[in-house]
Amino acid sequence: MEKRFFTIGMAGHIDHGKTSLTKALTNVDTDRLKEEKERQISIELGFAPLYEDNEIQISVIDVPGHERFIRQMIAGVAGIDLVVLVVAADEGVMPQTREHLDILKFLGVKNGLVAISKIDRVDEEFIELVRDDILEELTDTVFEDAPFVLIDSLSKKGIEELKELIINTLKEQEMRDAKGAFRLPIDQVFTVKGQGTVVRGTVYEGTVEEGQTLKIMPKGIEVRARQIQVHHKSAGKAYAGQRTALNLSGVSKEDVERGDVLVSSEHFLVSKTLDVAIRVVEDLEHIVKQRMPIKLHLGTAEVMGRIVFFDRNEVKEENGEILCQLRLEEEILTKRGDRFILRRPSPQETIGGGWVIDPRGDKYRFGNQTIEDLEKKKVGSPKERISAVLMEAKSLSLNELIKRTSLDGETLTEHLAEAEFVLYDGKEYTLQLLIHSIEEDIFDKLQDFHHLHSMKIGINKAELFQTMQKRFPKALLDYVLENGITNHLFNRKGQFVSLASFVPHVPKSWAKRTENLINELQRDGLKVRYLRDYFADSGIPENLEADVRRFLEDAEQLVQLDEQFAYHGEVFKQAVAKLRSNTGSEFEVGDAKDALELSRKYMIPFLEKLDSLGLTKRVENKRVWKN
To answer: Which end of the chain lies in a sparser environment, N or C, as judged by fewer CB atoms within 10 Å?
Structure first.
C-alpha cells in the first residue's frame, strides 16, 4: 500500500493551549522564537512530527491565535487536512475561535476534531456547560458532528485518546493529489550557514525530488532543489501533504518571501484578475461596497486588491454564494478550485472567503448576463470547461489547457481523446465544432467569390484568410484548408484556392461574345490586330477586359505577347513548333523572321515571350533553345 502524508492544524483562541497540546502530542515545543517564549504566545507557525508508520505520516501545525497574527494563521490552515479546534474549558468559545471557524469554513477544511483543553481547571459540571456552549457555536460548521475529546496538556489526560483519534481519522481519509504538478506555497524563508537559502511549506500537490529544477513564482526564478528535509531528516523525495524544507540553489534569501510558490511546471497561471465565488461571514460589522479595497489571503500569499460585483453595489448580509471578481495589485499564482480568505484592511476583519472559478478573469459588463456566464463557468464539468476554453481561445496546447482549465494532465488527456476534440500540428488542440465552422466559412467565401469572379481560377489564400485570421489562428486555418483539400472539398493551384467542384468559366451573358473574340483571333493567325480592337469589336465592356483576358490565358486559349498584341493559344503553339523545326540550336532575329514570315513589330514581342516562358535564352544577338 502506498504511503500517505497528512498535515493537521491546531486552531483556536489565544491562550487556549494549542502550543501546549502540540507539545504534549509530539514532545516538541513549537514556540521557537525568543519573543514567543517571553510573551508566551505563538507568533509564527510552529511545526512538529506527530506520528509515522508504514501507512501514514502526520505532521502538526500550531496556528497562532492572536488576531494580530491572523495572516500566519491563514497561511498555516490553508495547507492542512484536518483541524483540531482547541477550546479552553475555563473560557469556552471566544472571538478568535469564531473567526478561526469562519476561516476554516471558507477554506473548505472538511475534517475536524474538538479538544476541550485545561479540564483540570474546572469541575465536571462546568465542563458540560462549556460543551453545550461549544455545540451551539459549532452548528453549521465542519465541527458540527465532530467528536469531542477532553484533555489537559499538563497532566496528559486525554492526550493518547486524542492522538489515536487523529491517526484513525486520517487513515480513513484520502490524501492530497500526489500525481499532479508539484506546488508548495512558501511560508518560511531562512538561511543555513554553509547551505544557503532554505524554504519551508506544506506540499499542496505533486511530488518533488532532490536535484529537480523548479521555479519560484510569480517571480519566475529558476532554482534547483539541492536538498530536501522532512522534520529535520534528509529525504530524497517529498510528497503532497508533507511539511517540507528545501535547500535551494540559484537564489538568495532576499529574493524569496512568504507567499511565493515553488512549482515544477508551467501549468500554473500567474494572474491579477480572478473570477471567484465567495460567501460572507454571518455577522458583517461593516458593509462590503463595490470596488472597495480587500486583502486576499490565498495559500501563503497576502495581496491587496479590490472586489468587483456584477449584480449589486454592496453587501450588507448574504446567506448564499456571490459570483464576482477580484482585481489585484500584484500577480498571484493560482488555479481553479483554490480556496481563499478575504479580509478588510481597515478596520481589520474577515469579510468572507471562497474559491477561484477562473484564474484568468476578463473585464465584464455589469449585469445578469455576466452572472449567467460566471454560473456556467462555475458548474461546468471537465469536458464543458475544456470546450468553453477552446471555444474562447480556438486553439491551445496541452500545457495551456492545463493552465486555463485547472485540470491535471491525466484528466485532460482522457477527455481530449474524445471525438469532439481534435489534435492538429501534433501539439495544438481545437474543437471539431470549430473545424466544421471554419470549413463552412471557407466554403461560403469561395462560393461567393466564384459567383462574383467566375473567370478567376480562385481566390488568393492570403485574401481568403484576411478576415478569418482575426478570429482564428493561422495554423488552424491552414490545417482546415489542407484537410479540405485532402478530402476533395477544396482545390489549390499555387497561391490560389477554389472549391474542388469549381471550373472557371465566362459568365453566360458574355460567353458568346468571348467565343467570337477567340475565333476572330484564331482566324487572324500570326498577323493580329491590337488586342483592344478585338475586345471592342466583340462588345465586351472595358471593365471586364482584364478578367476575360486572364481567364483566356489561364485556359491557354490566349497568349499575351505584350501590352498590345496577343495570339490564339493554338496559333502560338504552332508558331513555336514551326520556328523550332526551321532553326538549329541557336538562331538570330532574321532567322526567325524568315521562318515565320513576320515583321519586326510581331517578331520582337514573340521572341521576348519565348524568353519569358523559358523556351529560349538570349545570348548577345542570338537566342538559344532551352530543353
So the answer is: C
